[in-house]
């Protein structure tokens, strides 16, 4: 039996080797891709790609792929040698510039990456992949104006590019060093209160090397009384993926505002244009109210979807608040329509002083819309919200809000 098996192997082995030797360049290329992507065996894939190039030395796609393989295998000198050789041959393929620039970007050679990208864009000015990489490189260098310009160019070509839309929103928060804003909120109640509410907030935002800082002063006229509040918020960046929200506020006019408030959240910019947040908010009137929040967001083409919840435990039960938001971006990250629907009261809302008498534990339904638009460095917003609030057990009232806002960046 053993002798028979050896005889069969002797017959089959030359046939197998002969079949391998007669694979075409395309077949070897396909095998190299399969080996790399499915088996993650870059060493074997490199050997197959080099064998394919022996049969077709001018096959550019295989050479570019070989450069990528060396990059993934952490053999940077070999990868650069492949790409430099392609450059000497005057290759103008879009994928060549993308692969070469990606190598330099991933290894923190940002100036070289921009140089390669710009050369590629001279041949392919409408390349979405090159423009997106250019925006990422500049964003990683903290050159937000250049990143903003690249992503705006990309979105003018394809407004439905999901990854570009998500990046544009992140860049927008950092593209101007300073911003001043004013927001006015008007609330009318049909049953709950006799007097309408008026709230005005004035803010100053400063972008620092570690993130944004916002100082805000609020004036409220509620229950026919006036009061003020001061708030400070910061968004320190921890890494390319993670950043924090840290906020606090103080007021002497308890009842119109909480005595003080605090909040911390960890935010993540996740792969595939997802976002996530996990944190807490605390309000102190005569006692502290602790709320735990979680949110998940997703960019898809021109849309942004977000679902947020607030969980408020106490000794008797747990109160819940849920809000779903959809944005439709029309042009830049500052131009969009938004629709919101939810239940419960959140501490982010101007009506959060209602939390003092624990009406947040009663049933609330809300629905609203908002429109934001920009003109050069001027940002405008208008919004409306309807609430159906159970302000006493078994007794409901309606509330109608109108919000107007203006921000100037400089």
Task: Give descriptors for this structure.
410 residues; alpha+beta; Serine Threonine Protein Phosphatase 5, Tetratricopeptide repeat; 14-stranded antiparallel barrel; 10 helices; 14 strands; disordered N terminus; signal; TPR-like_helical_dom_sf; YaiO beta-barrel domain-containing protein; Beta-barrel_YaiO
Q: What is the compact description of this entry?
A:
The chain is α+β, with helices and mostly antiparallel strands and 410 residues long. The protein contains ten helices and 14 strands. A 14-stranded antiparallel barrel has the order 1-2-3-4-5-6-7-8-9-10-11-12-13-14.
Please characterize this protein's 3D structure.
The chain is α+β, with helices and mostly antiparallel strands and 410 residues long. 34% of the residues lie in helices and 40% in strands. The chain contains ten helices and 14 strands. It has a 14-stranded antiparallel beta barrel. The chain is elongated. The termini are far apart. It comes from Chryseobacterium flavum. Keywords: Signal, TPR repeat. Residues 177-349 form the YaiO beta-barrel domain.
């Amino acid at each position: 039996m053993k002798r028979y098996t050896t005889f069969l192997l002797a017959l089959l082995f030359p046939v197998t080797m002969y079949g391998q030797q007669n694979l075409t360049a395309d077949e070897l290329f396909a095998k190299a891709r399969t080996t790399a992507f499915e088996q993650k065996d870059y060493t074997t894939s490199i050997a197959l790609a080099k064998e394919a190039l022996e049969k077709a030395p001018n096959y550019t796609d295989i050479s570019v792929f070989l450069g990528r393989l060396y990059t993934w295998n952490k053999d940077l000198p070999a990868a650069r040698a492949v790409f430099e050789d392609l450059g000497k041959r005057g290759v103008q393929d879009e994928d060549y510039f993308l692969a070469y620039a990606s190598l330099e970007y991933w290894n923190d050679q940002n100036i070289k990456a921009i140089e390669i990208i710009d050369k590629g864009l001279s041949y392919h000015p409408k390349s979405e992949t090159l423009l997106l990489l250019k925006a990422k490189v500049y964003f990683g260098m903290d050159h937000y104006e250049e990143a903003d310009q690249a992503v705006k160019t990309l979105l003018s070509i394809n407004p439905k590019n999901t990854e570009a839309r998500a990046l544009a929103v992140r860049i927008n928060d950092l593209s101007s060093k300073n911003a001043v804003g004013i927001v006015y909120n008007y609330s009318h109640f049909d049953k709950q209160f006799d007097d309408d509410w008026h709230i005005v907030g004035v803010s100053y935002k400063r972008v620092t090397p570690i993130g944004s800082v916002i100082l805000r002063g609020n004036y409220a006229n509620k229950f026919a009384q006036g009061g003020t509040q001061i708030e400070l918020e910061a968004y320190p960046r921890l890494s390319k993926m993670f950043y924090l929200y840290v906020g606090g506020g103080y007021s002497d006019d308890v009842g119109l505002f909480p005595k003080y408030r605090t909040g911390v959240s960890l935010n993540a910019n996740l792969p595939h244009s997802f976002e996530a947040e996990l944190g807490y908010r605390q309000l102190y009137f005569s006692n502290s109210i602790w709320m735990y929040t979680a949110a998940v967001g997703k960019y898809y083409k021109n849309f942004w979807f977000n679902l947020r919840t607030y969980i408020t435990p106490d000794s008797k039960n747990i109160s819940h608040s849920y809000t779903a938001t959809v944005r439709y971006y029309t042009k830049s990250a500052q131009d969009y329509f938004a629709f919101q629907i939810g239940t419960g009261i959140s501490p982010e809302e101007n009506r959060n002083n209602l939390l003092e008498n624990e009406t947040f534990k009663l049933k609330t339904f809300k629905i609203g819309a908002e429109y934001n638009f920009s003109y050069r460095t001027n940002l405008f917003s208008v919004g409306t919200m309807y609430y159906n609030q159970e302000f006493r057990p078994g007794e409901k009232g309606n509330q109608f809000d109108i919000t107007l806002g203006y921000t100037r960046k400089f």
